[in-house]
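We modelled the chain as a single entity of 366 amino acids. Its sequence is:
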Amino acid sequence: MIRHGRLEDIDQLVDIEKSCFEQDRISRRSFRHLLTKGRSTVLVAEEAGNLTGYVLILFNRGTSLARLYSIAIAQSHRHSGIARKLVIAGESDAVEHNCITMRLEVRDDNLASIRLFESMGYRQFGRYLKYYEDDADAVRLEKRLIKNLPHHFTNVHYYHQTLEFTCGPASLMMAMKTLDKRIELSRQIELRLWRESTSIYMTSGHGGCGPYGLALAAHRRGFKVVVYVKDKDTTLFVDSVRSKDKKEVIRLVEEDFLKEMKSSGVQINYQSVTTNEIIAALDSGAVPVVLISSYRLYQEKFPHWVVMTGHDEHFIYFHDPYIDVEKGKTVTDSVNMPIAQQEFERMARYGKSGQRAALIIYPKVR
């Protein structure tokens, strides 16, 4: 029998964990959190009152992506087909949570698990070097849980931001690398782009990057850029600070950016870019970089840049340069994140005024 895990299962779950893994074990405290408060599902296989295995599925807030975080089978029940049954049950639970994609990582030397998942329709789409505590590599696997959705993907290079305030530069780096493979990415480039693009102040701490600074940084490197901003008369991010002096600094920085953009000839469209326009840009060979509110993903109210990578009839896909390591997230959770189109429409705006902004980055001008 396969059922949802309960608090009274913790002792047996810990025993299975200890018998199956020498490192990277889930602790008793973590199991308690996952069973009561985590955005997760723990499914267990039970026989005659004893647990014979479990599967743990994690869900990402705001997205239609599920992650099979762990699966373990008691030594006495290996090769009995329980693992396959648990995976199938986990997939069904993910679909019930409105997820269309399942992802996971497996040690590259765990050939039996890799064969199992591949036999169930999972495909390899990447690798992590030195992912586990003993420096073993991990293979990244993915399965589309809902079939027959036509989709279009652009092979967008992924780069994760290394600082909490560099989502804009990291997103721009992904776009530029996708359009010009010769570009080498590094933290030095990330910080250089931030220095060129920062608004100086935004929320607390270091300043963030607005569309005008990012557009100019791309333009200086030879890329064609089209900027969309909803409101011509509103200074971007000015509501993120309370001090009048800081507001004035943000206004002056934006004014300076706009003067340079006017002289450079970068196109600005003062209108809300639609999802269909973003899709059309992606299909034409451009890479859209879109401003969203992070609240629907991370429950924190700050502006955040992401890179659109694909679409289908119901979903938008994007690379998120931010990886929430503190909550156990990895690159697997941030690459080609599926977002329902209606959810994306709500997400792609920021602040009380519902400001919208996007950059469409085209190949270098010859």
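As a brief sanity check on the tokenised model: The radius of gyration is 23 Å. The first strand starts at residue 2 and ends at 4.
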